[in-house]
Specification:
Blueprint: H1 2-41, E1 45-47, E2 58-62, E3 67-71, E4 76-80, E5 85-90, E6 95-102, E7 107-114, H2 118-127, E8 136-143, E9 152-153, E10 160-164, H3 166-173, E11 175-178, E12 181-184, E13 189-198, E14 210-217, E15 228-235, H4 239-242, E16 261-266, E17 271-280, E18 285-291, E19 303-306, E20 313-319, E21 322-328, E22 336-338, E23 343-345, E24 355-359, E25 362-370, E26 376-385, E27 393-395
Parallel strand pairs: 5-9, 16-21
Antiparallel strand pairs: 1-26, 2-3, 3-4, 4-5, 6-7, 7-8, 8-10, 11-12, 13-14, 14-15, 15-16, 17-18, 18-19, 20-21, 22-23, 24-25, 25-26, 26-27
Length: about 400
């Protein structure tokens, strides 16, 4: 009798366990199917409406809750997927650039620059404010759920925290030798712009998500030290403690002393570096959209794809008239191939003002423009990644 009860109880537990596993599998399949449905159900285009003097810099989409977020240099706007503006954060007197969205935390990460070069002074002039000549490069971390109405103040309301990117500031403020001349800005660093959340390139199975931050790089055709894109990698686990409220009259310096890694990618020079950096989990690659460069020895593509599955390598580059050892990333072996330089990429007009992976090889890509009255606007269109020699993306119809 005891043995029969023991057997029955074990069979009962086994059946329950099998049933539980089946339920989990069904939920897993349903979740994947639901995600695919969400991507498929997203509208083929979303128009931002006219947004003032400053052009669009980046876009991210919260598929779960049905919102799109756009940075327009001096403000962040929140829209529903029907194109209605739900809220906005205004009051930035710096350069709010590329964005990425963490679906697990509901946080938006964006690059934010304060500087005294032509870009910084141009923004100040457009806004009708005095340039303070202060330099500060930050990652702004927004709580998306708090953006609930138009015209919310970036400084006065509890909407965001900022983390100081010391490495980029140090390179921006450095002076180096190029030939017999002393010039400003190590690696021709003009600040930061492209941002992307992604796994570790060398250790993708560690289960952590890191923030990749791309430099802006000046398009000076007389320099020989600005032909690489520069990307920093940060562990953001303790950034809740490092982040400080935005104070534009007194810029803080709370942030990591150094990145975990500093990567270099040879693309040839481009104007102001990587404008939009996006990690696509579907392919495991990083997409880098730029304003094409002007050096005649390079192909000057608009779009580069960094092979996220290829481990980093060590190589030597020139900086300050010296050869320095650095970590490098590899371009994907696809697309056009410039035999002279060995650089691969695509001629693709769009993406520098917004490049957002949605899953299954689908992206939203910004087509920026200017209305007849001079105001800036953007329409994001749904594209599918192709990656052939002739085509990077094709428009979804």
């Amino acid at each position: 009798m005891f043995i029969n009860c023991f057997i029955l109880n074990n069979m009962k537990h086994l059946i329950i366990n099998i049933f539980s596993i089946l339920i989990l599998l069904l939920f897993s399949i349903w979740d994947v199917h639901a995600q695919q449905q969400v991507v498929g159900d997203l509208p083929n285009s979303i128009y931002t409406g006219k947004q003032g003097k400053m052009h669009v810099q980046g876009v991210v989409v919260d598929q779960k809750n049905g919102f799109a977020y756009f940075s327009f240099t001096d403000k962040l706007i929140k829209m529903d997927l029907s194109g209605n503006v739900i809220g906005s954060i205004t009051g930035f007197v710096g350069h709010l650039g590329d964005l990425d969205f963490d679906s697990e935390t509901g946080k938006i990460y964006g690059s934010l620059e304060y500087k005294n070069d032509a870009i910084g002074k141009g923004i100040s002039n457009n806004l009708g404010v005095k340039n303070t000549n202060e330099v500060g490069f930050y990652i702004a971390i927004f709580d998306a759920s708090r953006i609930v109405r138009l015209g919310m103040d970036a400084e006065k309301e509890d909407l965001l925290r900022t983390v100081y990117i010391k490495e980029a500031v140090d390179d921006y403020q450095a002076k180096v030798k190029v030939g017999d001349k002393e010039v400003e800005h190590r690696f021709a660093c003009s600040g930061i712009d492209g941002v992307a959340l992604a796994p570790s390139i060398d250790h993708p199975k560690d289960g952590k998500k890191y923030l990749y931050v791309a430099y802006g790089v000046y398009g000076d055709t007389t320099r020989n030290d600005n032909d690489h894109q520069v990307i920093l990698r940060y562990d953001i686990a303790d950034w809740n403690q490092l982040g400080q409220p935005l104070s534009q009259e007194k810029l803080h310096q709370s942030g990591p002393n150094a990145p975990l890694d500093k990567y270099f990618v040879k693309t040839g020079n481009s104007r102001y570096g990587i404008q939009n950096l996006a990690y696509d989990a579907h392919t495991g690659n990083f997409y880098a959209a730029v304003y094409r460069g002007a050096k005649s020895q390079y192909p000057n593509y608009d779009l580069f794809v960094i092979d996220g599955r290829k481990k980093t390598a060590q190589t030597r580059i020139i900086s300050d008239n010296k050869t320095v050892k650095v970590k490098t990333l590899s371009l994907l072996e696809a697309g056009l191939n410039d035999l002279k330089s060995g650089i691969r990429g695509w001629n693709f007009k769009w993406g520098a003002t917004g490049l957002c992976p949605l899953g299954d090889g689908i992206f939203y890509i910004s087509h920026n423009g200017k209305a007849k009255d001079g105001q800036q606007e953007s329409t994001i269109y749904k594209y599918k990644w192709v990656g052939s020699k002739k085509e990077a993306f094709v428009l979804v119809k």
